[in-house]
Amino acid sequence: MTTPHPPTNRSQALRAATLVTGGSRGIGRAIVERLLADGHQVINLDRDPPSAPAGNEVFEQVDLADEARSRAVLSALAERWSITRLVNNAGVVRPGPIEEASTEDLQAVVAVNVASSIRCVQAVLPAMKAARYGRIVNISSRAALGKPLRTVYSVTKAGLHGLTRTLALELGAHGITVNAVGPGPIATELFDQANPPDAPATKRIIESIPVRRMGTPDDVAHAVAMLLDDRSGFITGQVLYVCGGMTVGLGHDA
Questions:
Q1: Which of 3, 8, 25, 156 sits most deeply, having the most CB atoms within 10 A of its CB?
Q2: Are 57 and 121 in contact (CB under 8 A)?
Q3: How many CA atoms within 13 Å lie on the side-chain side of 207?
Q4: What backbone phi and psi angles, to 5 degrees, belong to 3?
Q5: Is the pLDDT confidence value at 92 over 60?
Q6: Is 58 helix (H, G, I), strand (E, B) or coil?
Q7: N- to C-terminal Cα distance for the chain?
Q8: Strand partners, 179
Q9: HSE (CB half, 13 Å, CA atoms) of 195?
């Protein structure tokens, strides 16, 4: 089990916490529940409340696309907690072919997937630097490698890869690691609605996965928990694909 790292200097009087964005449903919910089980004090930022808040979860309702409101919430949290772990999980998708991609689509997806991630990092950096310790995990996607009908979304997820690598170089000397997790096909409620388990298309997806099963939100949460662990201090600037081997097989039939 991970032992939350004790804060130092200015943050000594503040209780350590882990911040997760978009933690009310799906993969984000699994991450919150795993971290709570590991003994973290978790702060969940989301537009909607979880159906059943649990344990040491603190929920703050905020639309991360709203810059002014999200900055105010983040500032207030930084005054109350020493946030030395951050999971940028919140994300939105506006699927469609390139012909239909609009500037509005791009701005809406960038606002949540990229801009809010940067704001969250900026908000927690003072506590991390004071503690000379930090863990940041950005939730990306295999779509960053290319996916039909995901032009706008894939642009933002590829952007998170650049952010991850750049921050790893900037912040490593402060004891802060920055990594990304890229989920492959994950059996969330939204996926199951669009892909019924017995449908031929769903079976084809499963057959394309080397481990021959869909991923689960818990699979992603486990990878995130590992990268947040105290013992992961020599892993930084990396993208870990949780995809059942699909990424390894890219181009294997070429």
A1: 156
A2: no
A3: 7
A4: -100, 115
A5: yes
A6: strand
A7: 43
A8: 137
A9: 16
Answer for the pair 28, 21: CB distance below 8 angstroms, yes or no: yes
Dihedral of CA atoms 163, 16, 241, 143 in degrees, nearest 10, equals -50
> Could you tell me if residue 62 is left (phi over 0), alpha (psi between -120 and 50 degrees) or otherwise beta?
beta
The DSSP-derived string for 102-138 is: -HHHHHHHHIIIIIHHHHHHHHHHHHHHHHT-EEEEE
CA 163-132-224 angle, 5° bins: 50
Q: Let me know if 241 is a catalytic residue.
A: no
The answer to whether 113 and 157 have CB atoms below 8 angstroms apart is yes
* Nearest residue to 88 (alpha-carbon basis) of 108, 70, 68: 70
What's residue 82's pLDDT?
98
Whether CATH 3.40.50.720 fits 9-186+216-242: yes
Instruction: Please report where in the chains the tokens 């996607």 appear, as a residue.
Output: 141
Distance CA 212, CA 231 (A): 31
- Residue 45 corresponds to which tokens in the numbers above? 């930022």
What is the average per-residue pLDDT within 2-23? 72
> Domain locations in the chain?
9-186+216-242
Q: Which of 65, 153, 181, 202 is catalytic?
A: 153
Residues 193-249: tens digit of each pLDDT: 767 788 898 888 899 999 999 999 999 999 999 999 999 999 999 999 999 999 986
User: What pLDDT sits at residue 250?
Assistant: 60
CA distance 212 to 1: 29
Tokens of residue 86, six digits: 């951050």
Query: Which position has the token pair 């590992």?
Result: 226
**What is the number of other CB atoms lying within 10 angstroms of the CB of residue 103?**
8
